[in-house]
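Bug #77: duplicate submission created two jobs. Keeping one. Sequence:
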Amino acid sequence: MLKAFVWVFFVLGGIASERCAAADAVPDRDQLSARFEEARSLYDGGQYDSAAAIYEGFIEQGYRDFALHYNLGNAHFKAGNLGPCILHYERARLLAPKDRDVLHNLEMAYLRQADKRMEPLPRHFFNRTWTGWISLFSQTTWAWLTLGMAWTVLAGFLLIWWSAQLLWRRVGLTVVFAAVFGLLLALSGAVGRRSFDARERYAIIMAPSTVLKSAPSEESTDLYILREGFKLKIANQTADWVEVMLPDGNVAWVQANSIEAI
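Kept job's structure:
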């Protein structure tokens, strides 16, 4: 059983390391740090579009970071670019779901959105509780919590295995039971969050206004006209059209080039 746990730790450690390597695989850190500081200086000087252009350059290089998306959202907010502003605030929220600053700024941005807010469909108690649980942390944080609990289980087993004193073996056993419980909770959060993010895909309207259609065709009936910054749930997609669900549950089609996925 100990060998099985050791194997699990190496697997989980490899996954976490791979995720970190993907996030950190950005060449020439010193140069990027200088560019980041330049963007901050431009922002402080009121040159919001220029600051946003530098942040966008980081994204084109494959860089993904909470501070990057948050600062880019701030630059677009100051420049009056509502669609990109909301898009990057939402991306920042995916990386730090409980960050107060991004939640506040996102609320302020949505208040600028011109369309009247639609009442979302009611959700039953279990759905609300489960969604609240897995939304406590991002996928990466859940992965690290799972890895930490797994290492704690291993530490408990090692304490039982090598300790000659009964007291320390009991301590090790207690650690194992507590850590296994924590591991199951963390693993449920990690798997649940991964499934949720894959299933619950959203997009932001980037065009000044766009027409939602009854079918993926220009000749179909116009259903709604929505403006920049409106958030839609992605249900299906073709080459040129995306089927979306509105907060009130109604379904429509929108041209793919008028929205961008979060």
